[in-house]
Amino acid sequence: MADGIRFQDVNIELGDKMSEFFTNASESTYSNLPEGLLDMSGVAFGNPPQIDGDYLNGVTYGLQLDGIGTKPEISERLNEHHGAGFDLFAMVADDAAASGGEVLAIGNLLDVRELNNDDEVIISGMHQLAASMVLAARDARVAVIGGEIAELGKRIGGYGDFNYNWGGVAFIATRKDRKLTGQELNAGHKLIGLAEPGFRSNGITDVRNAMEEHYGDNWHEQVEPSLGNIALGKLLQIPSTIYAKLTRELQGGVLQEEPSAEITGVAHITGGGQPSKLGRMLLRTKGLGATIDNPLQPPDTMLHIQRLRGFDDRKAYGKWHMGSGMIVSTTEPDKAITEAEKHGINAQEIGYIDDMPGIRIKNMGAVQDEEWLTY
Fold this sequence. Notes:
This protein is α+β, with helices and mostly antiparallel strands and 375 residues long. It is built from 11 helices and 13 strands.
């Protein structure tokens, strides 16, 4: 006790058990990579495996870091965490495609408020997170080669008994002859939108604020008839689509011989929406523009939240993905769409690159006060 404040004890024994549990879960992902790519020589001494640089020639390496923001509160409200690993891996792995890179391995940092061996909600939550990590790693075809669990007490807040933040770092490999620099883009190249049925992990604070203001503290249990007979918490918890396996097939990656389509640019649509990510990731290098005249339909839940928050369409497109979780530029749109369908991802040709600067989007927002949005 100091200055009237009671400090929570850190559960070292349970922390060690959970670390061992997550380590075992991580080891089960090693087989997602080809034999020989991981150097296991230091594992016997407690060190994580490393990528063997001799395995790949003509390849550059890099890192990508991200996290799942405030989306865990939705899972905390539902006591269901099976989608959290997909949210994390989508945020960390899918950015790599913008440079033509492939994520081979991911490390993660899980900060929790408390570990309590007598609390079934906490123990169940930890097991669900580990299971989601294994399934997401399989979906992304990566290995989890490092991790840390930290018990931080009141520094971590949220809803209910089990609260956490989850972040990760991706190890990216890129073949020099397949690197995307923006110079590959030309006017006339087609834009393919890859559908995302949920919010991913972006703009969730606005989502939670809208829910609490209009439905009350127990909003996650409420049903909005216009969205169907499913609790709002379930609708808003939809795990993020991981595009990494698809982009690897499209671009060829570092472990595959031939690309399945000629890809000239990739934009992962996260915070800032299509105007920011298209402009910053694809167009600015050569001063090109884009016209999106056949956009994907935004999810109904996204349009509903837009109405509740009172956002005009321009602001909504500048905050959320509005239908396309990723946009790919290609000279072979039919091949790209066919490959996406093989991976169970809805895709369509949404527009094209043009030589007129700026981005023009046919408006599919909730307000519809403008037919076209220009950025």
